Amino acid sequence: MRTNAAIGIVFNQSRTKVLLVKRQDVPVWVLPGGGVDQGELSTTTVVREVLEETGLNVKVIRKVAEYTPINNLARFTEIYECQPLQGVLKKGAETKEVAFFSLHQLPKHLFFIHKEWLEDALKNRSEIIQRSLNQVTYWNLIKFFLKHPSWVIRFFATLAKQ
To answer: What angle in degrees, to the nearest 10, is found between the helix axes of 149-161 and 138-147?
Structure first.
């Protein structure tokens, strides 16, 4: 059973680009990551998920943030800044595309909350950011559904399979 999520923010060496994946189920760009398996450390999860989704082995540099859900639409999420160690970019079973993007030219369909998480990482704070996921609401889901109905249907179909 997966109850938490761990997300990796992987910058290039000069911190001018960030690694993103385009999901297979919904055509949006996101930061790599996924659910923490029972008994697994979130740091282990983020390293595993980045490898599975991008082909890169990474090491965790620092914990950026912890976000707490305010409803059942989200789950407790930990964000980690990671450094690439080795590997070659390649898509995984859950990813349609993998690429580094300039911080000044992010893709149009970057999931909004992931953009906020990236902005938090770029603040480079020494303390861990802790806040609620106030943006993940039923009203925002309805607005997103109206804007992209087929994406939302595909997303929930994927959730039903898990």
So the answer is: 120
d(CA 3, CA 80): 17
pTM for the model stands at: 0.85
Number of Cβ within a 10 Å radius of residue 47: 21
Residue-range definition of the domain harbouring residue 32: 4-136
Q: Kindly report, residue by residue over 88-135, the tens digit of the pLDDT.
A: 999 988 899 999 999 999 998 898 899 999 999 999 999 999 999 888
Tell me the residue type at 63.
K
Tell me the pairing of strands 129-132 and 56-68. parallel
Q: What pLDDT is recorded for position 74?
A: 82
In a domain, 162, yes or no: no
- CA-closest candidate to residue 93, choices 4, 23, 18: 23
Q: Give the total number of structural domains in the chain.
A: 1
For 50-68, what is each residue's pLDDT tens digit? 999 999 999 999 999 999 9
Q: Is residue 153 part of a domain?
A: no
Helix (H, G, I), strand (E, B) or coil at 44: helix
Distance CA 126, CA 79 (A): 14
Q: What is the CATH number of the domain that holds 33?
A: 3.90.79.10
For residues 35 and 5, the answer to whether their CB atoms sit within 8 Å is yes
